[in-house]
Amino acid sequence: MRRSRRAVLRSALGLAVVAAVYLEVVPRIASYGSVAKQLASVSAPWAAGLAAASVVDVVTSALPWRALLPQLSWPGAVGFTQASTALTLVLPGGAPLGMALSFGLLRRLRVTAGAAGFAVALTGIWSQVMIFLYPLAGAVLVLASGNVSTSSLTIAGASGAAAAVIVALTIAALRSPGAALRLGDAAGRTASRVAHLFRRPAPAWNGEALVRLRAERLTDLRRRWPSLTASTLGNQLSAYLIFDLALRSVGVSVGTLSPSQSFLAWAIGRVISSLPLTPGGIGFVELGMIGTCVGFGAPRAHVVAAVLLYRGLVIVPTLLVGALALLAFRIRPSAAITDDDPVQSS
Question: What is the DSSP letter of 281?
């Protein structure tokens, strides 16, 4: 009961933050009238390009999962990915919640616990490492061509350090059964807390499971990590393409805001969205991206319009596709699966 109250209070606080950002903070940066004027200036060709990029972003969400679970069909991989992402956009919890939801949905797709745990762990690790490395890469690119603010450098340094920690823990878990045992126990406790928070059964996951998984899947990882890396990059950078197109579509030229500067702003937004602040980082992500772009000298109304357009194009399609996928999951008959069952395509 106490945890349920905490969840309600946390959700209420998140909504209050979002309301404050959109009703108080954003209008002080640029009036909604001026933002609407910029959005209305988007031409039909730009709108078509943005729509196409949004479709690519949804479709490529299946790439990392197909790299690890090629038995999954494209519709199944896209559906469960969009469903889990859609839930993280309406529920607080950040990356840990997304991983727990992905595990449950993969089990509904008749993926064995071992294969599902392997895929969720690796896609989560690869995704977070890259998300934390993007600001560092963006800061290096901006420094090569101009100045970067102290706050941006601080975020880049902190996210780079976080990426290094994740990589070190992953290498330790892969090289040492003892480290895998400790890391697996910690992950199991986190997953159990998330499951309890949403009144779901705790996943049967602990350090011993990770040790077994390490022994069984190490060869698989050595074979698949290049394709996992490439597919994760392809999926995540499709979102950056949407943001850069959004900037150009509302009239922010490359001379005003270079691709390296827009990449750094997007990268900072990605880091913020992975943190358990508000569902999907809504409110905080927008402020981080707007503040970074305006700090580089881009016009405020144009930047706010571009950021809101970008956020709409990455959130709304995911909510729509995710809702349809969740409906399909509810209709889909549930079946008991043992760890010896083969992975089946949806």
Answer: G
State the burial class of residue 111 (Cβ atoms within 10 Å of its Cβ: 0-12, 13-18, 19+): buried
Triad 328, 332, 337: Cα angle to 5°: 130
**Amino acid type, 57:** D
- Comparing CA positions, the residue from 235, 271, 260, 269 lying closest to residue 160 is 271
Q: Tell me the one-letter amino acid at 239.
A: A
Helices (H), 146-206: 150-175, 177-197
Residue 10: CB atoms within 10 A of its CB come to 16
- CA dist 248 and 243 (Å) reads 9
Q: What is the maximum span of the chain, computed from C-alpha positions, in angstroms?
A: 59
User: CA–CA separation, 334 vs 256, rounded Å?
Assistant: 54
Q: How far apart are CA 257 and CA 41, in angstroms?
A: 19
pTM, to two decimals:
0.80
- Cα-based torsion angle of the residue sequence 208, 209, 211, 216 in order, rounded to the nearest 10 degrees: 150
| Model pLDDT for residues 107-123, shown as the tens digit of each residue | 777 887 777 877 887 88
- Give dist(CA 133, CA 291) in Å, integer: 20
User: Which residues are within 8 A (CB) of 77 and not within 5 positions of it... i.e. 6 or more apart?
Assistant: 61, 62, 65, 66, 69, 346
Sort 106 into a burial class: Cβ within 10 Å, 0-12 / 13-18 / 19+. buried
Radius of gyration of the chain (CA): 21
Q: pLDDT digits over 81-103, tens only?
A: 898 888 878 776 556 666 777 87
Cβ–Cβ < 8 Å for 87, 103? no
